[in-house]
Every structure is written in C-alpha cells, then in structure tokens.
Amino acid sequence: MVVIGAVLVIFRVIPERQTAATVAGVLFVLLPVILMVLEYRRAQLQEMIWFVAVLQFWTVFALPILGIRLLNWGVPFDQLSFVGIPGPVLHQFSSKSYMVMMIVTAWCWIKLARRAQT
Q1: Where are the transmembrane segments (predicted)?
Q2: How many whole angstroms separate alpha carbon 7 and alpha carbon 23?
Q3: Structural domain tally of the chain?
Q4: Residue 75 DSSP one-character state
Q5: Three-state SS for 14?
Q6: 28-41 burial code (b ≥16 CB/10 A, e <16)
Q7: pLDDT tens sequence for the chain (118 residues)
Q8: How far apart are CA 27 and CA 23, in angstroms?
C-alpha cells in the first residue's frame, strides 16, 4: 500500500508524465529486488511461494515495462509493446500481477505471524 501511495505522490510531484512513470517504474523494479535480498538473508527460500509471486511480477512486468520505457524514450507508452503485447495491456496485467504479489505477501506474513505465536 505504501508503494501505491508513493506512486501517486510521484505523479503529483513530477509534472512530466513520462519522467514520473519512469521514476515509478524504477521503484517497482528496485523494491522487489531489495525485498527478495532481505527475505533471502532472513530465511533463505523458506517461503518459496512468496519468491515466485515476487519474481513473476518483477520479471514478467516490472523489468519489461521499465525497459520499453527507457529504450523508447519520447515515444508515448500507448505506442510501445513488448513481445507483441501493447504497453497499456502489459500495464493492465501488471496491476493484476502486483495485486497477486500483495495477496501472497499478506498470506505469507499471516502464516509467519501464526507460526511465531505457537
């Protein structure tokens, strides 16, 4: 939820849409990497489902979207595509993928909290 709030702030603070979208994209690329490193240091691959959920968002959506933005600077996002998938469609699916990642994160967190109580 904090990331979504940060993205909203980014778009309000940075008036130029392409730059704001790129800054938000960097956030969506860096944050999963940081979280995966921290989680790996904490518990290795104990919560494999969490790593899979994060990796699917990161590799299938966050990296490609940021990549096509950076490699096609100045081109409107609605004119971009990645492996034949139009940018806007990719972005739609990335939102759903992000929600899946958040649901899995919440589920793993609840599971961990329950384990800690016993």
Answers
A1: 20-38, 50-75, 95-113
A2: 9
A3: 1
A4: S
A5: coil
A6: bbebbeebeeebee
A7: 788 899 999 999 999 999 999 999 999 999 999 999 999 998 898 899 999 999 999 999 999 999 999 999 999 999 999 999 999 999 999 999 999 999 999 999 999 899 888 7
A8: 6
